[in-house]
Design brief:
Blueprint: H1 3-20, H2 32-48, H3 51-78, H4 80-84, E1 91-92, E2 99-105, H5 110-125, E3 130-135, H6 144-160, H7 162-174, H8 184-193, H9 205-218, E4 225-230, E5 240-242, H10 248-258
Parallel strand pairs: 2-3
Antiparallel strand pairs: 1-3, 2-4, 4-5
Length: 260
């Protein structure tokens, strides 16, 4: 039976159900035999046309992603000041930038490591954008370097500013050491390359706790987490959240969306 006949049966069913809801005691629409026959017809059609199931699955996935984006965007709207204007957060790019890219990351996260080269490309191609780095060492309980690298990064930022922080940030990722492989020597060399020679002990636990609370408030469940948004006049429609890896092309598209 053709698809239009099945659809006709479904439409008829809904119409009869709607009429029956107006009565206190609705009568059965179909007999059990008729229901079984309709089910068999529909099942046979889907077996012969499995592409319909693929289309339905894709549509459901798209709707789920759209709902998730709207949920993320609403939380971003509620936390704009913490995302964009925290003096403890390293920031690279013009103060008057119209768009910001905020990354929540852990130096020991392998996916953050995979993201890093692409993010470097985007930063070079879009010098008009502000890039904000939220140190979020979620693996600190597993690897000590997760926390020590994050704290040293904040210290480089506070001592030397944006350019030095970016040198440190990239130098750590350029080691290629993640998932427990990053060493104290790696961190010290990256800080030295950024211009910090005195590697005295630092404690920015309060900053890291603040970043963790913000990530939780946003609904992020792991690293990397990326938010692309206008610095002013943000709306759910021009905010993009990547809860995971994003390609340079995806980031550039999100930046363009945030500018309109």
């Amino acid at each position: 039976m053709k698809l239009k006949k099945i659809l006709s049966l479904i439409v008829t069913t809904y119409a009869l159900l709607s009429i029956n809801t107006l009565h206190a005691a609705p009568a059965p629409v179909f007999t059990p035999e008729q229901e079984a026959q309709i089910g068999k017809i529909a099942a046979d059609y889907l077996v012969q046309h499995p592409e319909i199931l693929v289309q339905v699955s894709q549509k459901l996935q798209q709707q789920q992603q759209e709902r998730q984006q709207m949920s993320f965007a609403a939380k971003v709207m509620d936390n704009q000041a913490a995302l964009l204007s925290d003096a403890d957060t390293p920031s690279v790019g013009p103060a008057g930038a119209k768009v910001a890219v905020i990354e929540f990351f852990d130096y020991q996260c392998i996916y953050c490591s995979r993201l890093a080269p692409g993010l470097e490309q985007v930063m070079k191609s879009r010098p008009d954008v502000r890039f904000i780095f939220k140190e979020w060492p979620i693996f600190a309980s597993k690897w000590e370097a997760s926390s020590s690298a994050a704290q040293r990064g904040i210290d480089v930022w506070k001592q030397k500013g944006a350019d030095s922080y970016l040198k440190y940030h990239n130098a750590v990722y350029h080691t290629g050491h993640n998932e427990g492989e990053l060493t104290t020597a790696d961190i010290g060399a990256a800080a030295s390359a950024a211009g910090v020679k005195d590697l005295k002990p630092v404690d920015y636990t309060a900053v890291l706790e603040k970043n963790d609370a913000l990530a939780q408030a946003l609904g992020l469940s792991g690293t990397p987490g990326l938010i692309v948004m206008p610095v002013k006049n943000a709306t759910p429609k021009n905010i993009t959240v990547f809860a995971g890896l994003a390609s340079p092309q995806q980031l550039l598209a999100a930046i363009d969306k945030a500018q309109h």
